[in-house]
Amino acid sequence: MKFLTKTILSILLAASATSLSYAADGSAESATTVTDTSKPHTPMSEGEVRKINKETGRVTIKHGPLANLDMPGMTMLFRLQDPAMIDQIKEGDRIRFVANKVDGAFVVQVLEVVK
Q1: Three-class SS of residue 8?
Q2: What DSSP designation does 30 have?
Q3: Which residues lie closer than 8 Å to 109 by C-beta, 6 or more apart?
Q4: For residue 104, what is the DSSP state?
Q5: How many angstroms separate the CA atoms of 95 and 115, rounded?
Q6: I want to staple 96 with a disulfide (CB 3.0 to 4.6 A). Which of 23, 44, 50, 113 is the partner?
Q7: Is 92 in contact with 72 (CB distance < 8 Å)?
Q8: CB atoms < 10 A from the CB of 36, how many?
Q9: Helix (H) or strand (E) holding 9
Q10: What pLDDT, in 10s, does the model give residues 92-111?
Q11: DSSP 34-58
Q12: Residues 6 or more apart in contact with residue 27 via CB below 8 angstroms
């Protein structure tokens, strides 16, 4: 029984590692997009930048539903995965973004300004 359990776990770990390597290849389409989401098929959410804190690398976003996080629309604080994202936005900008929960914090992983 232990052998069977270890074998099944090994197969699951191998399958998981393979799917993660494919996920890392995803990229967004816009020139103003900052990349690297672990879920390339995650739908983008829409929102408005309400406040920017360059010192902490965090932004307050009023957003619609975040389907991938099963969250309704609200206004909340997000950390930016890439510090360069903060220079692409200003308060009042309409944005599309992908956020995920990383180490207990909500992190914007992909971001584009709606023009």
Answers
A1: helix
A2: S
A3: 36, 37, 38, 81, 98, 99, 100
A4: T
A5: 9
A6: 44
A7: no
A8: 14
A9: helix 2-23
A10: 999 999 999 999 999 999 99
A11: B---S-TTPPPEEEEEEEEETTTTE
A12: 35, 40
Residue with tokens 């074998």: 7
Over residues 19-52, the pLDDT tens digits come to 333 334 444 343 344 444 444 567 899 999 999 9
- Amino acid code (one letter) for 99: A
Residue the block writes with tokens 């309409």: 94
Which residues form the domain of 16?
Answer: 1-115
- DSSP secondary structure, 78-94, as one string: EEESSGGGGGG--TT-E
| Phi, psi (deg, nearest 5) at residue 54 | -65, -30
Structural domains counted in the chain: 1
CATH number at residue 98: 2.40.50.320
